[in-house]
Amino acid sequence: MPISNLPLGKAASPDPWEDFSNVFRREHQPLPRAWADVFGPLRKGTVDDCVIVGQIGQSLDGRVATESGHSKYINGPAGLVHLHRLRALVDAVVVGVGTAIADDPQLTVRRVSGPHPARVVIDPKGRLGADARMFADNGVRRLLITAQGTRCRAPSGVEVVTLPVADGQFAPSAILAALAGCLDRLHVMVAPIILGAGGPGLILPSLDRADQAPRMPVRVHQFEDDVLFDCDLSAQRVALGVAKKST
């Protein structure tokens, strides 16, 4: 099936997506119409050369896991395919240590065909064990971001990036600067289920009034039963400079 005719929620063959991931990286080559609305905004930064997209898979009531911590899988097959498509297009995928311990993710591209991104874990106290699956050596760059002075048991070949800590936490700007990027867009994939109690997808400072909540440009896409909210956060971006390019 040609790339331009692929339905959003399905990957009929792994080869068309690998072809698309190559086209995606060729800045001056137009994207197939079927994919331009979803992935076109990730192709080039509006503030600088960096583009970072956050991705959350959650229930209708905003949960990313049950109260016991179980989360496999909230989204349906089409939503999971979208996640792997994103991985095939980005240079690096970043998770917190809580997710790395709870889910032991591989962070590889498996549901479609395409290159694996570099894998990064934010682990201030060095809690993640050396046998974590994201540390597996498959020829892809792996990084561990931890606090200065922390003793880490990172396996051979895993790069360790140390950052200063304030009140037990990293400053988000320090993490972003270390990774040479910041959040431009947020993909929230909502599944048609209600979990009740459980882990929330987003934890933000509270507001006194509903009309104080920021509104942002949003695109909505259907992926079989799941619905993707593509939120444009570029208005709050701080320029970090020009991304390094390989030669």
Radius of gyration: 18 Å
Mean pLDDT across every amino acid position = 85
Strand order of the largest sheet: 1-7-10-9
User: What's the helical proportion of residues?
Assistant: 10-25%
- By DSSP, the count of extended strands is 10
Count of helical stretches? 5
In short:
This protein is α/β, with parallel strands linked by helices and 247 residues long.
What's the SSE blueprint?
Layout (H helix, E strand, L loop, with lengths): L13 H11 L8 H7 L12 E7 L4 E4 L10 H13 L2 E5 H7 L14 E5 L19 E6 L11 E5 L8 H8 L3 E8 L7 E3 L17 E6 L2 E7 L15
Parallel strand pairs: 1-7, 3-4, 4-5, 5-6
Antiparallel strand pairs: 2-8, 7-10, 9-10
Q: Describe it for me?
A:
- The structure is a single chain.
- With 247 residues, the protein is of the alpha/beta class.
- It contains five helices and ten strands; from the N terminus they run H-H-E-E-H-E-H-E-E-E-H-E-E-E-E.
- The chain has a four-stranded mixed β-sheet. It has a four-stranded parallel β-sheet with strand order 3-4-5-6.
- The two termini are 34 Å apart.
Features:
247 residues; alpha/beta; four-stranded mixed sheet; globular; disordered N terminus; disordered C terminus
